[in-house]
Amino acid sequence: MDEARIARLEKKYSRKATEKMGPGPGPGPGRGPGRGGARMPGGKPQDAGRTIRRLFSYIGKDKWKLVIFIICIIVYTVASLAGSYMLRPVINNLVSEDGSRETLFRSLVMMGCIFAVGIIAQYLQSRIIIVVSQNALKKLRDDLFRKIEKLPVRFYDTNNHGDIMSRFTNDVDTVGEMLNNTVNQLISGAITIVGTFALMVYTNIYLTMITVIMAPLMILAGRAVAGRSRRYYKQQQAALGTLNGYIEETVTGQKVVKVFCHEEIAEEEFSYLNHDLCRKQIKAQFFGGIMGPVMGNLSQVSYSLTACIGGILCVLRGFDLGGLTIFVNYSRQFARPINEISMQVNTIFSALAGAERVFDVMDREPEPADKADAVSIIDKDGCFYYEAAPGAGGLSAEYAAVHGSRMKGAVTVEHVTFGYVPEKTILKDVSLYAKPGQKIAFVGSTGAGKTTITNLINRFYDIDAGRILIDGIDIRDIRRDDLRKCIAMVLQDTHLFTGTVRENIRYGRLGATDAEVEEAARMASAHSFIMRLEHGYDTMLEGDGANLSQGQRQLLNIARAAISKAPILILDEATSSVDTRTEKHIERGMDRLMAERTTLVIAHRLSTVRNANAIMVLENGEIIERGDHDDLLAMHGRYYNLYTGLCELE
Question: Distance between CA 613 and CA 627 in Å, rounded?
């Protein structure tokens, strides 16, 4: 790879060390929002203490299990320390002239019983922490998924999907590894340090002072290495998310890669990202890996000093040999928890980096809450009725007249101005209306703002100025979920879920019966091809319906919209990617679907909108022409040029 190519890739993927995955630059004009690339945050965690507290709040859900867990740790630690202390009388009995076999036997039996209790306690604590940690991970994933479902469309439009997936996989997995192992060692280590220190003081205060003097040196060395390790682990997790995002993007667009012979370029970019991840992993693993040897060597120094000085005390001050033996063991035990924690530094900081990325998503602002007195829309057997919030005053009084009335589907756009980002306005003072049952078409150049209007009607984004009304009610005064239930969409890009054909159609209305599913399929002209499938409506679809043609997938998409019985229908270039014969099937399905529904159509093929009640011609976010097909042709303006082929859509 040449230097110029490397420089371009570095410019493309590099981000400032302090940046986190953010909202990005926002989507550009055209078909609305677009996906941004993954950001590569770096630096230390913004608040490691807060991250740890949030993680432990998930463990705290099983309080009684934690209490039993801590009791087991205490029992195990006490048994381990007491068993070690039993060596003192055993050794002294062996070297003493007054020692007896009976005393030795009783001491050994007692020592065996103590260690047996410790083994049982250790087994129980291991089982309990696994249950607690897995429950915590389940709750963490649940919370993350629920938050993902509540985030606005803008979040998905401006963040790489693979990087979002990395939160659920790599980041949560690292947190799980820490909860399964490290938490146990942290608590056990803390109790061991306290118990060991108490017995060391009881055994010999002078030797204890030597061990205590060495402890700060070990802590300082650990902090120095951990500071570097933490930074590189944060960068490692970010680079891993970026690499996953690129893989997801490339696999999804593999046909495009092959069509344009982009394999070598894709390999180069993957190689660059893989090398970047490798470089960050080497740094993270190196500084995490040297923690153990550093702490281990310092522990050996402490152990050697203790043994040497203890031997001198045995000769000069009459310190017993059994006391020296157990003290050097305690000296090693005192350093062991510190060593174990240092060996877990890889897991700790990798988990903190992953947890911070998870909490970064969970802390995002969700879609704004509905107003307390927002109007509800009730579905009664496929008919939609307004239900104003109870009580006097405010919206409840204003919309009391609509209470109990059936939704008609009139759409009014009044002086709407909107931009995905503040510095670029997409729609400029747009006004239009659609009477119930009318078909309104939008045509114009790519980037004119056609799809943006439909995004605003669904409240995927909130407008900057003006208002959008349905049956005279501002959509911001309607419950968001109820509003979207009343709007069916057929998009150019179809998406089918893993499941049967029947389940995919029923996705439009989960309470629909099998008969209603088949009726919707017939309305969409999909019934005939479905019956030719191996298992008919029970045929399993996987891989976004990879075993179906593009036209068949679109027909299922139309059937899904048909079964919803929503009074408002949005068709976004639904036939732009299919052949002419399939287009006729789709158009017949859509004609049935549009009957008695207010329909908003976005189309590049002007032949599909000739029968529209009104056609809006948009350019640069403004409606420059409006009228039906004949009126617009008579004007000899932009629509006339588009229709007669004198100019092309840009």
Answer: 8
Per-residue confidence (pLDDT) for residue 95, from 0 to 100: 59
pTM: 0.67
Question: In the structure encoding, which two tokens stand for residue 454, read together?
Answer: 């439909």
Q: What angle do CA 101, 102, 105 make, to 5 degrees?
A: 85
Choose the weakest-confidence range: 90-94, 163-167, 179-183, 274-278. Answer: 90-94
Residue 38's pLDDT is: 36
| Residue found by looking up tokens 């696999």 in the block | 251
Nearest Cα residue to 432 out of 618, 621, 616? 616
State pLDDT tens for residues 159-200.
Answer: 777 778 888 888 888 888 888 777 777 777 778 888 878 877
Cα angle value 254/255/260 (rounded, 5°): 100
Summarize pLDDT for 249-272 with one digit per residue, the tens.
787 777 667 766 777 878 888 888
**For residue 43, is pLDDT > 70?**
no
* Dist. CA 36–CA 556, nearest whole Å: 29
When pLDDT is averaged across residues 419-436 and rounded to a whole number, the result is 89
Whether the predicted pLDDT of 401 surpasses 60: yes
Shortest CA distance to 600 belongs to which of 576, 583, 580, 616? 616
State how far the Cα of 174 lies from the Cα of 288, in Å rounded to an integer: 15
Quick one: the chain helix, strand, coil %, rounded to 5? 60, 10, 25
Angle at the Cα of 527 from the Cα atoms of 521 and 530, rounded to 5 degrees: 115
Q: DSSP letters along 103-165, please?
A: HHHHHHHHHHHHHHHHHHHHHHHHHHHHHHHHHHHHHHHHHHHHHHHHS-HHHHHSS-HHHHH
Nearest to 154, CA basis, from 472, 395, 444, 419: 419
Q: For the chain, how many helices (H) and strands (E)? A: 25, 14
Facing residues of 619 across strands? 622
At position 461, the amino acid (one-letter code) is: Y
Query: For residue 35, what are its two tokens?
Result: 């996906």
Residue 58: pLDDT over 70: yes
Q: Spell out where 394-520 has E strands.
A: 411-418, 427-434, 439-444, 465-470, 473-474, 487-491, 499-500
